[in-house]
């Protein structure tokens, strides 16, 4: 595939309307492609159809953007890019299509409150009145997508397509969705969130399947004309709640994973690991904006150091970097971004491209469960009143990853498709509310092979309860609780004791032990003197511990060769250092020898991989706020005495010390990043 070795990419964001005669009249393809070429860009994502639905190419379907005055922007860009040796990915929007919305009212999505999308004002989640949203379950709309995609593929030659917006911004109650649901289940679409009912959970999964089926339909329309063209569907909504129906099933419709993110480096590191592991082929693509921090800040640009670190973080995960730039409404760009900034960035990063790819060496793997992106406590809520906020399903695994990064415990982030073959010593199920049967099959196989599990909060499948020898009863009434270590849990709970228990600022799951065999209780639940949320108190400002229960809070279960640890709440979400340390101690207890050890400070990530028999390391100085300051005196320790280490590209030999049967590699000063090889 053309994507191999293609790490430097670009997209010019241009969802520009045409009510003003000036709009897009200053587009200059020559200047634009010259800029990309000078910067060393290897692939350009070129807009064909943006969210306005106004085409940037002559079309027999829909209409062209008026500002182009018939000019074939797409055709000219493809020709110029190819002449410059730049691959082209054609951008095409789905679901978000204002032209389709205006011209085909029957295709519109219908929100839980009966509204079409342009009827909303000043709301979140695209409910601004700007976006016309149509439903991919509508057969007429599907035909329109197919005709559009096939027209593009017949009229132009290019390497790949990016199909944006493969999600519903809200639950759709349009006639097509209602009919489809009725036909498939015999029921009306639900109006209330009922996570305690299988029927509702299956409805949520069905929407994820529908979205993936639609994505496969669009991909097939392209491949029918040009089987060689690669297809990428927008995957960034994978971190959004269940409402958007974006799940790992989308990976069945793409050649590789790609999506745009505007958070910091911790978020990038988490999502890059996940993409690397679920993408059918590599490199995956990490998109982020030139604008700081996101496109809304059209006129601000990230620093060179920030961009360098974004590119290098993606690269060491075997990901391509795609800079999302934003065109001015008149069609002009800022060419200096390419002739200066991006040229400098890519001229540095391109020297490291030949060293990446290969498997990460790791001890732990965090499972990001894409079919469980909900809060089971949001129960009985009307679908009009549901929350779009990112919640515990995302915060807990990201918090786990933050702790593992800061303690230098080698880790990965995996998807459902990786569970069964996973080689880590421990898989972390950080507040996974639901585990599907096929996922449970994979987890059972992993445990049977001797893998360990850490499970926090809900136990998402009765088979996992059985494995743990417990039965979940419910949750504590108290919303502020404690974990008191038992004698057996003293070591793991380090700075905490029965008298000074670990604080959990939320309710805990309650369970009964049904099979005491091989179970050790490491902590019990302790509750405040008074019920939280009432006017009664023991201490006026706080909820000190007062009721010591026998209710298990943390248990360890031996299952053949495996050890399973369950915690009644996600300890990893804790803010205090010593509480986070308890999570580390639990995970460390489930790992044998670590593949490397390091004293790197919390924001420096150490990554280790093997490629073609060679052992590589990367150190990334992921400070979230510019300017990024250097870090001194870091070591990385590896197994084996008398190893040598040399910096990549420069070949500079690093100082080493022999410590018994181990070698310590010394890094005097780390600026932004460093890659080295150990022999
Ligand atoms: Zn619909």
Automatic annotation (TrEMBL):
<dbReference type="InterPro" id="IPR017853">
    <property type="entry name" value="GH"/>
</dbReference>
<dbReference type="InterPro" id="IPR028212">
    <property type="entry name" value="GHL6"/>
</dbReference>
<dbReference type="Pfam" id="PF14871">
    <property type="entry name" value="GHL6"/>
</dbReference>
<dbReference type="InterPro" id="IPR029062">
    <property type="entry name" value="Class_I_gatase-like"/>
</dbReference>
<protein>
    <submittedName>
        <fullName>Hypothetical glycosyl hydrolase 6</fullName>
    </submittedName>
</protein>
<dbReference type="GO" id="GO:0016787">
    <property type="term" value="F:hydrolase activity"/>
</dbReference>
<keyword id="KW-0378">Hydrolase</keyword>
